[in-house]
Write a structure and sequence with these properties.
By secondary structure, the chain is an alpha/beta fold. It has a single domain, classed as TIM Barrel. Helix content is about 50%, strand content about 15%. Strands 2-1-8-7-6-5-4-3 form an eight-stranded parallel β-sheet. Strand 7, helix 12 and strand 8 form a beta-alpha-beta unit.
């Protein structure tokens, strides 16, 4: 790859706007599209989204679990989605939320980040709750192959606060420690990289509906200097006021993630594009106001 993931996603965001569309083939959506809850329906659903929106949005984000539930054949469809997205020049974020230690984490890194792996898109989501240091194999492989990661930091599910808001042995909130570790990785990458590159390749997942949690916990999102993947923007529930509260001066780095709000318009490609355009315009209005 000729540029870092941070540089590529920044360029895609600048060209297409801040919208990332999830490819989430829930059984209910398959049924709403008139498709079976099987591999044939899965493949039709996923590739229709890629063909309709590839080259038109900042990124596509297939939800790995909803492919894996169909077994090996479902994983093969995920590989097709990754290949088709990249062929259209659209960054693909594989939403797998992997997290483990040692050789197992290294195995996940090879699967989702190593050049030549059919599952390796441009980035993968990771869970740091075995300690941020447990992600080192993935960070190393990502850096070696020009790929990125999005680390879960402050999610909007109610259960997340019990871990993310907890105080670690150093007296720091867990989410704050994760953000600082991501910032350190990005600082090192940007210092060694091409002049003018503004985003590092270690991003965070931060829910757009978390209110003042980042401020209360002392999480400096602007200091991360990486992309911020934000479920919940625009039609999902968070408008300009909410985004100012959550992201503050880091709004320029936000990638607004929308799934069902766009996918419900399918299976017609024109309707999918119109829904994505509306979601993008809502995200732009919310982020730039």
């Amino acid at each position: 790859m000729t540029a870092t993931f941070g540089a590529r996603i920044a360029a895609s965001r600048a060209q297409h706007g801040p919208l990332v569309v999830g490819i989430d083939p829930h059984p209910g959506l398959l049924a709403a599209w008139g498709l079976g809850d099987d591999v044939v329906g899965l493949r039709s659903f996923a590739l229709t989204v890629v063909e309709a929106l590839g080259g038109r949005v900042a990124g596509l984000k297939p939800q790995s679990a909803l492919f894996e539930r169909h077994g090996a054949a479902g994983v093969a469809v995920l590989e097709e989605v990754v290949a088709a997205s990249r062929q259209l020049g659209t960054p693909v974020i594989v939403d797998a939320k992997r997290g483990d230690i040692g050789s197992t984490m290294a195995g996940y890194a090879d699967a989702y980040l190593r050049e030549g792996s059919a599952l390796a898109g441009d980035a993968v989501t990771l869970s740091p709750y075995l300690g941020f240091g447990s992600l080192t194999p993935a960070l190393q492989v990502a850096a070696a192959h020009g790929r990125g990661v999005f680390v879960l930091a402050l999610t909007s599910n109610p259960e997340g606060a019990s871990v993310q808001h907890a105080i670690d042995p150093d007296g720091v909130p867990v989410a704050t420690a994760i953000a600082r570790a991501a910032a350190a990785a990005n600082d090192a990458e940007l210092a060694a990289g091409e002049p003018g590159t503004t985003l590092g390749s270690v991003g965070l997942v931060v829910g757009a509906t978390i209110g003042d949690a980042a401020r209360r916990l002392g999480v400096d999102l602007a200091a991360v200097r990486g992309p911020l993947l934000a479920p919940g923007v625009g039609a999902q529930g968070a408008g300009a006021a909410e985004l100012r509260e959550v992201f503050g001066s880091a709004r320029h780095a936000v990638l607004a993630s929308s799934s069902r709000g766009v996918l419900a318009a399918g299976p017609d490609a024109v309707a999918l594009r119109a829904a994505a355009d509306r979601a993008r315009d809502q995200a732009v209005a919310a982020l730039e106001s």
